[in-house]
Design brief:
With 459 residues, the chain is an alpha+beta fold. Helix content is 41%, strand content 21%. It has helices spanning 18-21, 35-42, 47-51, 89-101, 150-155, 237-247, 258-264, 292-295, 304-322, 326-358, 362-377, 385-390, 396-428, 430-451; strands at 9-12, 31-33, 55-57, 59-62, 72-75, 84-87, 106-109, 113-118, 123-127, 133-137, 140-143, 162-177, 197-201, 206-211, 217-224, 268-276, 279-281, 286-289. The strands form 5 sheets. A 7-stranded mixed β-sheet has the order 5-4-13-14-15-12-16. Strands 2-6-3 form a 3-stranded antiparallel β-sheet. The two termini are 34 Å apart.
């Protein structure tokens, strides 16, 4: 985006060049690409190229804790085009890198670890592969260096900089389901249906699986660090296998390296980062942060990358609108994006409760059916929060509020339905009718508490 606007751009990357050494990413969790990320990619002509390597997922498939469970499919949206795209983190990074390298005004530097930023002079300090210090100055320094950003660390030392980070009591660990030999099985070599996100909800914990282009699945455990379903209690091969056979029995036959992967792969943490301001203006220029460096979120709405890509396109539009006034453009971007970043952080935390606790509930599934029925009757008037977040570029703040309104509407619809049934029954039998009417009010109270995620679950 910056190159297309005519800026001279230097990219300093901590890792080596993946075009030479192969992808050296950190977390290998698959990425879920949806409308906002596609909108940003489309602005630089990369949407179609990236989608060629993506696997569309049309909904969730829930796996109960049984050896041969009845799988329950829940569509993501009310229309066939409502899909989430599973893509490779490494493949996407290579596509973006190759596109950037095509611009003559882009210089790519690898194996440069940012150790500090001098904000007044707008100078970033790096250590290269030889251990030597390098200093790079610019009119605009943008830290796109993740949740533990070195650039944000420098901003935190400036006056009146607000910063908070909060960790979930859950961590994550990755496992692997390989492709079937010679394309066997009903899914053409995939061990599971590739056009869905698979979830094993287990109350306080869960496992998910996303498809890969090589017909394997990347599985991710989201478990508490401690407790009966926690990581800390499983330290031996026998304990791991016994635990999975009891809690994830249908997955065990699909995971030949389960024990090795569990004992060898690290446990990662899940953090939400909030800060303000996202930029400081110095004597020479501006130092800013973007994406996870400004607003890291947990991955339970599949919006971390999408929100960050949306940041980029909005920033580019602000720079284009303000012309030579870079400071005004950066401030305008923060004004637009900060409330939306806070909104998706909140929704991501709430969606974790939904995924681990509710998706396997019959009440939840009936609620979803009712939601789709209401949306089908008047789709323009009653879009769901999920559809607004994942399948539109409506601001996250509006999606958050629309979701609250929609939840209230569903409660009213249910209450009205039960009220009518109770009223009819009261004409037949006085006791049954009034018992149901009384149940309406109790149900509303329980429903409102259930919708909020329970005590202590809201951020």
């Amino acid at each position: 985006y910056l190159a297309k606007l005519g800026y001279g751009v230097t990219v300093a990357e901590r890792r080596g060049d993946p075009r030479v050494a192969g992808y050296q990413g950190g977390r290998s969790i698959n990425l879920a690409l949806s409308a906002r990320g596609l909108w940003a990619l489309d602005g630089v002509g990369l949407k179609d190229e990236v989608l060629r390597h993506a696997i569309p997922m049309r909904g969730r498939i829930m796996h109960a804790a049984e050896p041969n469970p009845t799988l329950v499919f829940q569509p993501y949206g009310s229309r066939p085009e409502h899909v989430i795209n599973s893509i490779s983190r490494g493949g996407l990074n290579l596509a973006l890198l190759n596109a950037a390298a095509c611009h003559e005004n882009v210089t790519l530097l690898f194996q440069r670890r940012c150790v500090d930023v001098d904000v007044p002079s707008c100078t970033a300090v790096f250590v290269n592969a030889a251990g030597m210090e390098e200093r790079l100055s610019a009119d605009l320094v943008i830290g796109a260096d993740g949740a533990f950003s070195a650039v944000r660390g420098a901003l935190q030392r400036t006056d009146r900089f607000e910063y908070s980070q909060s960790y979930l009591g859950h961590g994550y660990k990755e496992l692997h389901i390989p492709a079937l030999p010679q394309g066997a099985g009903p899914h053409g070599g995939f061990a599971l249906d590739p056009n869905a996100l698979h979830i094993w909800p287990r109350g306080s914990a869960m496992m998910i699986a996303l498809p890969n282009p090589d017909r394997s699945f990347t599985c991710t455990l989201f478990w508490p660090f401690e407790g009966p379903h926690g990581f800390a209690g499983l330290t031996t091969a026998d304990a791991v296998r016994t635990f999975f056979e009891r809690n994830y029995p249908d997955a065990v036959p699909l995971m030949p390296t389960l024990v090795e992967d569990f004992l060898e792969n690290p446990v990662g943490s899940l953090v939400t980062v909030r800060c303000r301001p996202w930029a400081r203006h110095g004597e020479r220029g501006t130092v800013a942060v973007i994406g996870d460096a400004a607003h890291a979120i947990v991955p339970f709405f599949g919006q971390g990358m999408n929100a960050a890509f949306e940041d980029v396109r909005v920033l580019a539009e602000c720079l284009q609108r303000h012309g030579a006034d870079v400071r005004a453009a950066v401030d305008d971007c923060q004004r637009v994006r900060k409330p939306n970043a806070d909104a998706i952080a909140q929704m991501a935390l709430e969606n974790f409760v939904e995924m681990r606790d509710k998706v396997g509930s019959r009440v939840f599934l009936w609620k979803k059916k009712l939601e789709h029925a209401v949306q089908g009757a008047a789709p323009a008037s009653f879009p769901s929060r999920y559809e607004l977040v994942s399948f539109s570029t409506v601001p996250y703040t509006e999606a958050l509020e629309a979701g609250r309104r929609f939840d209230r509407l569903i409660l009213v619809v249910v209450a009205c339905g039960v009220f009518i049934v109770g009223l009819l029954l009261s004409l037949v039998t006085w006791f049954a009718g009034w018992a149901i009417l009384a149940g309406v009010f109790a149900g509303l109270l329980v429903g409102m508490k259930w919708s909020a995620g329970g005590p202590g679950e809201r951020p």
